[in-house]
Every structure is written in structure tokens, then in C-alpha cells.
Amino acid sequence: MTAHDIPEPARLHTDAVVVDGLQINNWSREVFEELRTGGVSGVNATAAVWEGTDQTLRTVAEWYQMAQRHNDLMLLAETADDIRKAKDEGRVAVMLGFQNTSPFGDDYRLVEVFSRLGVRIAQLTYNIQNAVGGSCYEPEDSGLTRFGRNIVAEMNRVGMLIDLSHVGNRTSLDAVEASVAPVAITHSNPTWFVDNPRNKPAEVLRAVAEGGGVVGCCLYPLVLGGAGTGLDEFCAMVRRLVDEIGPEHVALGSDCTRNWDDGYVEWLRSGHWRPRGEVPATWPEWPHWFRGPEDFPRVTDGLVAAGLDEHTVRGVLGENWLGLFDDVFLGGRAA
Amino acid sequence: MTAHDIPEPARLHTDAVVVDGLQINNWSREVFEELRTGGVSGVNATAAVWEGTDQTLRTVAEWYQMAQRHNDLMLLAETADDIRKAKDEGRVAVMLGFQNTSPFGDDYRLVEVFSRLGVRIAQLTYNIQNAVGGSCYEPEDSGLTRFGRNIVAEMNRVGMLIDLSHVGNRTSLDAVEASVAPVAITHSNPTWFVDNPRNKPAEVLRAVAEGGGVVGCCLYPLVLGGAGTGLDEFCAMVRRLVDEIGPEHVALGSDCTRNWDDGYVEWLRSGHWRPRGEVPATWPEWPHWFRGPEDFPRVTDGLVAAGLDEHTVRGVLGENWLGLFDDVFLGGRAA
Questions:
Q1: Which helix (H) or strand (E) holds A224?
Q2: What residues in B contact A117, CB-CB < 8 Å?
Q3: CATH code (residue A298)
Q4: Residue A85 located in a structural domain
Q5: ipTM exceeding 0.85?
Q6: What is the b/e burial string over A18-30, where b = at least 16 CB atoms within 10 angstroms of the residue's CB?
Q7: Mean pLDDT by groups of 10 residues along chain B of 335 residues
Q8: C-beta atoms of A61 and B110 within 8 A
Q9: Residue B257, domain extent
Q10: A116 and B113 in contact by Cβ < 8 A?
Q11: How many domains are contained in chain A?
């Protein structure tokens, strides 16, 4: 490798289409500006965690209002091309995603309803067993249920991306097998990096990659090993994962949580499935090198410093998500 | 006028694009076949009368299922061109419409939500005063309310057609004035034909036409003067209305109610706003010359016999609805 081959990180970051596999911010104009400052052109924005059908409908409706109010700064994306367009225009493309299948209730028909409303990604379970399958925190993972198989088939039919980040390993393997389309882990790391229920054993990572899917390496302190983990350690993990499952299957999913108070992290952890206050929660400290979306250029620095070539860095930063979205989405309408 | 100018009704009916301004059937494959037999290419199908947000979402979801199951026979239409396409293909284009604003609840943002789901037409009120305005049966019509003005503005913005059929006269005149887009009366007749609260005084008919809107003359026995009214009387009414408000402003809205039992007509009349059984209801008898969608060719016969020229007959049968839809709809997405 000659000096000529070593990408200049700042130029590379500016040129690349940067896509974040998941953020769950308290969204506002300021947060969109943070994304733009960080050079992020596309993001999977969480529109439901525990919410049911009606409440999620209101959240989606509010996104339409935001898209009107901040039209100069962002747009709602339904395709990978919408993200490419946002990059060209210097705007941020927000793709609506669920971290749960709770908005579908027990009605598989609502997959198409929310698809038509612009929702492109849904995680099969959040932090507990649900009607679709087992979560990563569940001592007994049911596997993908009968209803879960219908949800997977319907998501395949309408072109909605299946996300396994918080999903239990048994259900995840079932889903990879059941799905005719590639699936994603939008925001998790390998358990060989940090052994945490939210991270994924090699078997699951490999299954996702072999099915044509993508794994978003995650910056959330809990799955990163805490705020003390170095950028070099994170990027060395990315590099090893690239070696293990292939450069086109690795991406980023920061799990940014901008502007929430501690009440929100307790909501995320406890929802209404257990009493508030039973397990108190506060937000963890983020590493000094990644405080929020504005710090994405540093990640590019780190990936280059870790010795990844330009093509791989571009893949990890965004092209791999775009390729997956091109594969999976059908433009928002059932075939 | 020479013999050459008198259209041949059967040929005319086959050639024309026939669009029905409103049907509220218990939909099934058999009913779609009745429409096809009757040469109907497009229909505004009622997807809500009293139902709220969640229940209406399920109705819309079920329409998506029907569109899959009966794809050979029908399609869901979002534009006038979808209806023209259905005509070319020998299928029936179903356009989803509401006979109430109840699915929006008290949240004007849900107009865009349902617009994105394919709903193209909404009547501002059904049979009682609601948050938007007064119904035609209300002794005191509030006029278009503050919320109602926001609903009208939002319907204008997203391209949803405002229907005034069951709406009170004061609210109707307010809505015509407030709307920047033409509006419709999808299924009512003039009060000079039958003096019934569901029919419209000349002032309202004129206001709708002057705003570029369309009035769908209605075959429902209650507003037709009963089953004894003759086809010639109905068609003479159409002709007089054409003379009064202009040929491009008159169309048809049969209000067909196929395959429901009497429980449904009581639901329509009483919803849950008064106790069931308080005002018992049974379906009225339809005139012998119009029992259902299969009898549309007879209406064409009658319009020709009433002396309307071919251009006017084509307008009344469907072109006037298509023109209005072209004017009002924006292809299902907010600008």
C-alpha cells in the first residue's frame, strides 16, 4: 500500500454517503443540524419502542409535520435513492423505523398499513418476549412464533426490512431462515467484543451476513464496553468483523439518544411491562470521542487509521446500508 | 338534431367511463362482479361512517387484502388515471372514501395519514353534529367549526376531496367558501325534486358548482322519493340540474347498499349516538329500474331518452367525476 492509497479521512467523510443504522433521539431542528454537521445523510429514526397502533400513528403524523417544518434541513426517505438525493442536497434523510412490532398489535395487515405510511424497518421484538418472538433479554426465547412467521412473510411482501438488534438469538436464527429477503442487525456488536445480551454471537452475525444482510456496529456505551472504550478499539472490532463476515456486511448504527432526560431511558427499559421505579435507570456516559452525530467524522478517522481501505470505509459508512435498502425496499408499495 | 346525433345508449354506455360517486356495499367478489356487469369502472367506496381511527385503519387494511385477493377484478385507485386504467383493463377501480371525519378524531394530522393510506374523499359530517360541523339532520347547524377549518385546509393541502352530502347547509356553504379546491356532493338530489333533509337547496347546489365542484344525483330511495319514482322522472331531474348548474357539474352517486341486512341500516342511522332499537330501521325498497350496480346501463338509456347529448351523458356518467378528481387529488402525497 502506497501513501497514495491511504484515504484522506476528512475528504473521504465529506464525499461518502454516511448512513446511521439507528438513532433514537428526541428529534428537533437542533438534532437534524447535528446530523448535518456530522455529515450524516441518512438515518433510521425510531418511531416506536413500546407504543401500540394508535399512538404510533400519531408519532408518524408528527413526522409528517416535522418534514414540513424543517423541509430545508431534512426529508422523509422511503428508498435508498431518497438518501442519495438528500446527500446531493445537503439535507438529512430520515427513514422511519420501529424497534418493536407493537404497532402491528396482533394484526399482520398493519405491516402494509405502516409500510404505506413510510415505515421501512421494524425490529421484531424490543426488550421482552412478544407475539412475534423472544427478545435478547428473555431467559426463554420462544423462537419465531406462528404469528411471527406471518409478520416476516408480510414484511418480505411489502419490502420492510427486518431488524434483529434486540431480538433473541433463537428467534433471530429463525427469522433469517424464514425471511426471503436479507435482514439487518441495525445496532449491535459481536459478543466476542463485549459480552452483553444485546450483542450477537458469531453464529447469528454469520447467518445474517450469509443471507445478504448487514450488521450495524454500535456506539451505545452499554454494548461498547462503557465510555472508556477507545476509538481504536471500536475500529479494530469493525476491522475484525469485516474480516469475519465480509466488507459488504458491516456498517454503523450509533444508537444516538440525543436530548432525552432520564425518564426516557427508564421508559425504554421498563415500558409498561413492569412498574416504573422498580429498576431505576439513568443514561450512560458516552465515550469522549463520540458524544453525538457531530462526531461521525472522528469515526471515519478511526476506520482509516485502523487500516481499512477506502472502498471498505465507504461501505461501512453508508454504502452497505444503501445496498441493503435497494435490495429490500419496494418503494413503499406492496407488489 | 339529426338521427345521427342521437347516441345509441348501449354503445355509449360501453364506451363511456362510468364512475359512481358513492356506494356503501357489503363488499365481496360478487359485488365487484355486479359493478363490472353494470359497466362501472370507478366507485367511491365508503370505508367509514361512524368508526374511529383504529377501526378505520383495520377497514383500510382489509381493503388492501381484498385488492390482493381480487386483483383480477378490481384495484385500489388513488388518481383519476387509475380509474381510466381500470376501464382499459376491464376492472373496477375502488377509491376509498369516508362518510365522516370520525377517523380523524380531533387530530387534523390524521388527514395526511389517511391520505397516504389511499383515502381520497371525506364527507365532513355524517348524520350528527361533530367536531367539524353540522349535519343535514341537525336542527342547529354550528357552521364549519375552528377545527373544521383546519380539516378543510389540511384536506386541501394533501388533495383530499371534501364531500358535503350529509352535511348541513350552513356548514356546506362555509366549507365551499373555506376550501381553495372544488368540493363535491357525492350523493344527494335537489330539494326541488324531493324535499328531504339529505337533499340540497338551490343555493348550496349553485355554490358547489360555482366553486368548480360536482353534484352526484342519487338513486337511494329516501332521496329519490321512493321506489315509485320513475327513471324518466330521475332523468328529467338530471336534465333540469344540468340546465341550472351546468353540464360539467352533474354526475351520479347511486348510494348502492348491496348485501347488508337490516342491522346495518340501523347502524347507519343510530351508530352509537343513540340506543339501538330506539328508532328501528329497515332498508327501503329500490325502484324496479335500479336494483343495484348491474342496472347502470338503464340509467344511460334514461339519460339519452331525456334528450341529453352524448357529451353531457358522458360527463354525467363519469367524466365529470374524473375531471374533479384530476383537479383535487395530488397523487396521494402532500405537496
A1: helix A221-224
A2: 113, 116-117
A3: 3.20.20.140
A4: yes
A5: no
A6: bbbbbbbbebeee
A7: 70 97 98 98 98 97 97 98 98 98 96 97 97 95 95 97 98 98 98 98 98 98 97 98 98 98 94 90 97 98 97 98 95 44
A8: yes
A9: 17-328
A10: no
A11: 1
